[in-house]
Amino acid sequence: MKRILILVNDEVVIYNFRKELVEKLLNEKYEVFISSPSGDKINELVAMGCHHVDLRIDRHGTNPINDIKLLNYYFKIMKQIKPDIVLTYTIKPNIYGSLAAKRFHIPAIVNITGLGSALGRKGILQKITVVLYKLALRSSLRVYFQNVHDQKFFLKHRLVHNNYALLPGSGVNLAHFKLLPYPGKTSPVAFVFISRIMKQKGIDQYLEVAQYIKNKYPGIEFHVCGSLEDDYKEILTDYQNRGIIEYHGMVQDIRQVLAQVSCTIHPTYYPEGLSNAVLESAASGRPVITTNRPGTAEAVVDQRTGYLFEALNSNDLIKKIEEFLSLNYAERKEMGIRGRAFMEQKFNRKIVVNSYMKLLREI
Question: Do residue 115 and residue 232 come from a single domain?
Fold first, then answer.
């Protein structure tokens, strides 16, 4: 029985976006180990048949001591588990997990889930990260990218050679995110922000625009869903007390919220791979208004399945919201149906799972 070690920063990203791959691995008799901090989804992953390896090291920030500790931790668990293949996701597991796998001559399959802050902005941190990636990816079996922009960045800096491929992000589970009935004609038009609550995801802009639109169109609703990554608790409470938004916190089943809203707004300017919030909203039949940048623009057909606007341009976002509001009920509903069809054509999660399994069977 082959052993697979999966390295991640958060068990939720495995359960929410890669559970289908884990299920396939288990069904084909792979022994699956997941290294992550403990969290709400660990028990469910263990119940599926996975082994959990607890990660208690701070894996955020730029402290080099913590990075050395993380690398040593990966050395230690690989020596103990002796995996046949290592799968990595996000920057630090990608870099330090690949370096550890390289030391033990273990094939590593790396997924670039976005450039992130480290690579997304020029400066010393970007230069250091480029050097680390160059060392880490030199002998990787495969490097998967989620958008063409990130792939071009890695090719430009000679971080990959012939060992890369492009995936449609994490894909979306079309059986789980079914086409939802569109809210009734008499329901208020409602928008939703679905993301970690952090500055680079565009929360400030969403709140600014929500206040403007509410003043002009009092019947419109604005919802916010997501865990607090940055310190926005008092700000969100203030906006909610003033009746501008409704904050739902971290929602366990986002389909319950999507069923009640007319459109998703995703004003991110974070250097991400491919937004799962956009994929899940579109798969559910909800039009999406999002930024015209890598990681989001690929999943929206402008003016057909939603609208694209210039990142950090509140006037442009307001313009696109008002364009959406000018549509009649049937046009909004049809826009969502076209979004669902686009997901079925290009972003089925089975594409991602099949790509991984094909590669694994060749090892």
Answer: no
The predicted pLDDT at position 120 comes to 87
Kindly state whether residues 162 and 53 are assigned to the same domain.
yes
pTM score: 0.95
> What DSSP letter does each residue of 192-228 carry, written as one string?
EEES-B-GGGTHHHHHHHHHHHHHHSTT-EEEEE--B
CATH number at residue 264: 3.40.50.2000
pLDDT value, residue 59: 56
- Block residue for tokens 């008092």: 234
* Owning domain of residue 159: 3-171+348-361
**CA 151 to CA 356: how far, in whole Å?**
18
Distance CA 215, CA 284 (A): 29
Q: Which residues contact 43 (CB under 8 A, 6 or more apart)?
A: none
The pLDDT of residue 215 is above 60: yes
Q: Residues 61-67: what's their mean pLDDT?
A: 81
Dihedral angle, C-alpha 303, 305, 310, 315, nearest 10 °: 70
Q: Which element (helix H / strand E) includes 247? A: strand 246-247
Does residue 266 share a domain with residue 200?
yes
Task: Phi first, then psi: give them for residue 30, nearest 5 degrees.
Answer: -80, 145
Looking at the structure, do residues 224 and 275 belong to the same domain, yes or no? yes
